[in-house]
């Protein structure tokens, strides 16, 4: 087995959500793209391997973003005085409609790759747009960056503007062609089936997408119970179902290959269904705040056995860094306790770190931890400018980075064992 890398520094990660694992001044060894182990002394057999010594810096797993709309990066920070539906109509759809233009797509998607790279996002689940050609451009751009991703061509065939809508049969046909073209094309990039959300997809489209997911074993992403008006609309469209989640379930789209963004207003019944199906919920506190959607009660989901991970929700979310989303998730959980339910304890730093690394990483395989056999996704954090390090322990320094750090503190990025430089 080839030993390729040894990094030295203060290693910190979460194998479980309850606590940090900390190895001060230790060696993290990579072999064949995987974590070989963490050692206080370099084992004899690796003595002649060169060490990348990062001194007093922190070494942490790469961040995993479970919900990011690539074409909305261009809208970052715009239109957030609106709620979901007017925001989609005024800002989102007009921008997304442009990405059938491959030159435009390449230019704007390159900005996305750079922003993900800068912020230490090593794995990401992306929405593109309804365009197959634009989605191919996004897949090529992200592949070249070295970042691992599930990337979805959006499907939508009802209740959408006439400049941004598909014909049902054509949508299914193009999606199948796109899956066949891309499912084995890249090493770290895979297609993901992406019905926009229930109000914009007919029953025929959703059932057809479920069939494609089963036929080719492709994962699924969508939106669920984000905004109260949206939920009422789903009730009107599907009175035969008793919850929003049960519509997806009835269409064959809710299983352990699925990630659903938001789940802000899920009922106990809906939460139970998500737990039973093994569906991942992507918690997107920034988007939930910006569009006045509400506060997701994460503690209740975790205690009910739902898999929860974190999403930036760019462009409803205004921050790319998952470390920023971590602190927002803690703040949301504190307000949930004060204003909604005194019984639900706020999230802790180790819990949100776990959600933004290992919990999201599970969607990608063995990703998001430094346990032996995990894919070697790592970041080196230099926190020299965040305060005097001598008076703070490693866990406090990580906490400080999560709250007050930014992309300038991230000085190296490794994905599946490879150091990745800034995308061109
Ligand atoms: N629901 C349907 N489309 C979208 C979108 O683009 N962003 C968010 N946050 N919710 C949606
Ligand atoms: Fe979204």
UniProtKB/TrEMBL annotation:
Catalysed transformations (reactions): guanine + H2O + H(+) = xanthine + NH4(+)
Enzyme class, UniProt record, top EC level: hydrolase
Single GO MF descriptor: guanine deaminase activity
GO CC term, one of those recorded: cytosol
InterPro entries in alphabetical order: Amidohydro-rel, Guanine_deaminase, Metal-dep_hydrolase_composite, Metal_Hydrolase, Metallo-dep_hydrolases
Pathway in which the depicted protein is active: Purine metabolism; guanine degradation; xanthine from guanine: step 1/1
Gene3D superfamilies, per the entry: Metal-dependent hydrolases, Urease, subunit C, domain 1
Top-rank lineage group of the source organism: Bacteria
Cofactor note: Binds 1 zinc ion per subunit.
Job description of the protein: Catalyzes the hydrolytic deamination of guanine, producing xanthine and ammonia.
EC number: 3.5.4.3
One Pfam short name: Amidohydro_1
Keyword Hydrolase in annotation: yes
Positions of the Amidohydrolase-related domain: 59-420
Gene Ontology biological process terms in this record: guanine catabolic process
Cofactor: Zn(2+)
UniProt-recorded name of the protein: Guanine deaminase
Keyword Hydrolase among record annotations: yes
Keywords: Hydrolase, Metal-binding, Zinc
Gene of this entry: guaD2
Family according to the record: Belongs to the metallo-dependent hydrolases superfamily. ATZ/TRZ family.
């Amino acid at each position: 087995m080839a030993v390729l890398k040894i990094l030295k520094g203060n290693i910190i990660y979460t194998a479980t959500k309850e606590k940090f694992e900390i190895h001060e001044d230790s060696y993290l060894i990579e072999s064949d793209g995987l974590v070989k182990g963490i050692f206080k002394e370099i084992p004899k057999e690796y003595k002649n391997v060169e060490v990348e010594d990062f001194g007093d810096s922190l070494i942490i797993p790469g961040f995993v973003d479970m919900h990011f709309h690539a074409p909305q990066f261009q809208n970052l920070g715009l239109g957030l005085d609106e709620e979901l539906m007017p925001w989609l109509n005024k800002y989102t759809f007009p921008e997304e409609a442009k990405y059938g233009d491959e030159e435009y797509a390449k230019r704007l998607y390159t900005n996305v790759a750079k922003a993900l790279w800068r912020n230490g996002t090593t794995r990401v689940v992306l929405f593109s747009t309804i365009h197959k050609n634009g989605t191919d451009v996004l897949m090529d751009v992200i592949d070249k960056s070295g970042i691992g991703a599930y990337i979805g061509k959006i499907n939508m065939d009802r209740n959408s503007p006439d400049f941004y809508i598909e014909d049902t049969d054509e949508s299914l046909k193009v999606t199948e062609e796109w899956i066949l073209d891309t499912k084995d094309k890249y090493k770290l990039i895979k297609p993901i089936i992406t019905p926009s959300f229930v109000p914009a997809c007919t029953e025929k489209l959703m059932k057809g997408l479920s069939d494609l997911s089963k036929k080719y074993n492709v994962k699924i992403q969508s939106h669920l119970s984000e905004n109260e008006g949206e939920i009422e609309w789903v009730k009107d469209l599907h009175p035969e179902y008793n919850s929003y989640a049960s519509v997806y379930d009835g269409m064959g789209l809710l299983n352990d290959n699925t990630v659903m963004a938001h789940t802000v207003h899920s009922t106990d019944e809906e939460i139970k269904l998500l737990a039973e199906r093994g569906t991942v919920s992507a918690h997107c506190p920034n988007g939930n705040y910006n569009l006045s959607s509400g506060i997701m009660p994460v503690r209740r989901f975790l205690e009910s056995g739902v898999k929860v991970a974190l999403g930036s929700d760019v462009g409803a979310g205004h921050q790319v860094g998952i470390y920023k989303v971590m602190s927002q998730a803690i703040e949301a959980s504190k307000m949930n306790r004060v204003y909604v339910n005194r019984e639900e304890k706020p999230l802790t730093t180790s819990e949100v770190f776990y959600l933004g690394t290992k919990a999201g990483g599970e969607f990608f395989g063995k990703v998001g931890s430094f346990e032996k056999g995990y894919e070697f996704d790592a970041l080196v954090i230099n926190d020299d400018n965040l305060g005097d390090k001598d008076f703070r322990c490693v866990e406090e320094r990580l906490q400080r980075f999560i709250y007050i750090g930014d992309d300038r503190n991230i000085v190296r990025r490794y994905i599946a064992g490879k150091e990745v430089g800034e995308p061109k």
